[in-house]
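ok so for the tutorial part 2 we go from a plain amino acid sequence to predicted structure tokens. step 1 is just haveing the sequence, like this:
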Amino acid sequence: MAQQRSAWAWVPSVSFGQGVPYVAVMMLSTVMYKNLGISNADLAFYTAWLYLPWVVKPLWSPIVEMFGTKRHWTVLMQLVGGAGLAAVALTLHAPDFFRWTLVIFWLMAFSSATHDIASDGFYMLGLPTQHQQAAFVGVRSAFYKLAMIGGQGGLVYLAGELIKSTGDPAHAWSMVFALMAALYLALCAYHQFVLPRPASDHSHSTGGALWQDFVHTFRSFFQKPGIGVTLGFLLLYRLGEAQLLKMAAPFLLDPRDKGGLGLTTSDFGLVYGTIGVCALVIGGLAGGVTVSRFGLKRALLPMVFIMHVPDLVFVYLATALPSDLTLISICLAIEQFGYGFGFAAFMLYMVLVADGEHKTAHYAICTGFMALGMMLPGMVSGWIQQQLGYQHFFIWACISTLPAFVMTLLVRIPAGFGRE
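step 2 — the prediction. this is what the tokens look like for a chain of 420 residues:
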């Protein structure tokens, strides 16, 4: 039977498939636009808007429930994502490429967010027991992170090498996106044949009742005790990091006479996209171990310090402007390790908030506010950087982390939560 197909045949590939469009929309677009001469203010403002589909993702999740199967939505959104990647490759030589590629990235962002809804639901149907789901949690995370390393590391490195050999950034990125499109469409075709067809995966025709449940779910979320502090924590925890992350690529790529480090695109793919992401993953694992050992209540404030204090390495880099690639790599690894370490606490806090009758839906709402907390600061980060310069901008980003400490002191966490 189809349901008996080994989970190893599809869980890793679907997890990898979840990461590819997100990496293209949220990470590769920033580096690509920088290579193509887009200003920091425009780059930050317009790419930050691409977070919006993940912000409002919970609002259209009932549509996925009401129409079609989650298997159908998963494959269809991969097809849309592959077509989007191909469309970016075809439009990069157009005179108005910035506008057209942004439109395509918007469509890809909505399809990626919809893919997340469908595939997350499909996991629970394709792996029906809690034991199976728990067994593949680490696999899902690992292959999603592999997509990040492959995209932000390998593909950015490839783009840099193509820029060196052709001297044409538009042509180089067009080739990279064409390669991504071919691979992603092949992955889509693979899933069309390999994904199981669970008997429980069917559409819900009772749309009226589903919408009533949807409204009740949202109402119950905003009726949780201390919801004001909770929302403040979700929105402000990454206030400084949201600005810093949006300007990290422009800073590393900008020439030294503009206050940047002047890295080549290939070097960026190596030090930030590969070494940095690996440090991020290790930090996340270490953060998870720390919480399981001490509990979230005891670990949260120290983890906030470990997450935000390393942001000071960007102040150092913008002041000293070192040229030693090893030193730059160490600095970025320290900052990314801290980010991953502290973000583990943030993720577990969302689990705590979502706990209850509608935990899956409430967790999705939390992730929406999490994305909003990245989108709004990111939109203005480019303009702020252009007004202040890189050195003072990174000082400002560090100051912007202070609200996270305040909100950390205000949130209430049960003793022992998260501890094994």
